[in-house]
Amino acid sequence: MEKADLLRTVEWKNNAVIMIDQTKLPNELVLVTYTDYNQIASAIRNLVVRGAPAIGVSGAFGLALAALQSNAGTKEELIGDLEAAKKTLFETRPTAVNLAWGLEQIMNVAKKGTTVSQIKNSIIDTAKQMADDDIKINMTMGKNGSVLFDDKDTIMTHCNAGALATVAYGTALGVIRATRESGKNIKVIATETRPVQQGSRLTAFELKHDGIDVSLIPDTAVGYTMANGLVNKVVVGADRILRTGHVFNKIGTYQVALLAKQHGIPFYIAAPLSTFDLKSNPQDVVIEQRNASEVTQVGDRKTAPDGINVINPAFDMTPPELISGIITEAGVARPPYEESIKKLFQANK
Ligand code: MRU
Fold this sequence. Notes:
Layout: E1 10-13, E2 16-20, E3 31-34, H1 37-45, H2 52-69, H3 75-90, H4 97-112, H5 116-146, E4 154-157, H6 172-181, E5 187-191, H7 198-209, E6 213-217, H8 222-227, E7 233-236, E8 240-242, E9 247-250, H9 253-262, E10 267-270, E11 276-277, H10 293-296, E12 297-298, E13 301-302, E14 315-318, E15 325-328, E16 331-333, H11 337-347
Parallel strand pairs: 4-5, 4-7, 5-6, 7-10, 8-11, 10-15
Antiparallel strand pairs: 1-2, 2-3, 8-9, 9-14, 12-13, 15-16
Helix pairs in contact: 1-2, 1-3, 2-3, 2-4, 2-5, 3-4, 4-5, 5-6
The structure holds 5-S-methyl-1-O-phosphono-5-thio-D-ribulose.
5-S-methyl-1-O-phosphono-5-thio-D-ribulose (MRU) binds next to helix 2 and strand 9.
């Protein structure tokens, strides 16, 4: 496990994509190698790779594999093959906007290209650059966010918005890492995050590995810890942020935000500009519904009666009035968000 800090969650090497298989964590650190874009689509669908920025970069790498797999003789044929691959990759997970963003970045590069071989090379270069940029963006975001946290803070986080949800370093956990690197002594409370347990399997694993003081709680203990003064700030990631400041993130985020409001605890979001969707309205966003077995089983063990009806949304929406600030690589947006988000994007043009 010591090697984890040397690894990227997703990486391009020798014309193949290498990923940490997150379904195996925390028990085994297994690397998988893919050379077919259909394998990348399955990996995204089955949560081998997950987290909004990580699936954005994975989608881009998927298109790079599709370009290498293509036997097209003309630019038009290559674009046709890429469009087909883009559709397969896009349909894997609907909520995190970073996936569509990553695919679009690559299609734009392909459309601007001239010859087949030039397009293939520039797609690979662009996807590799996106992976490198992701780490730099997270480190800048971390620094921007670290000023909001104080020595002796106990910070709650939900799901995994860490190195494993990005190429490396993380968004919400990047802010926590940067706060610690700035010399502040902090503690973290990680929610378990049922049903897929990204909090216990991934966040607790990552923070413990880095020597950050982390306590794991069941999701049902959020109210208890807040009511008993055990938490004084919250930071989570995001899968999609609208121009109004509505935030879509892992199921349960809304409950954490409501409880934080009730207890007067600042509730922050940390996400890159690629997570913003400035066009959609709240009702346009598709919430992924996942398999019932995630709820009726813990691992392979059945924990509910056969045939039970299940509602298993993967994400929920937190309204802007519950959010104290949105930390990005371009600065921190504060309410009213329609204005502050617009300013962030104008300044970053
Ligand atoms: O279903 P997941 O594990 O892909 O959900 C991940 C989250 O909800 C994260 O909080 C979000 O993607 C932000 S990751 C930096």
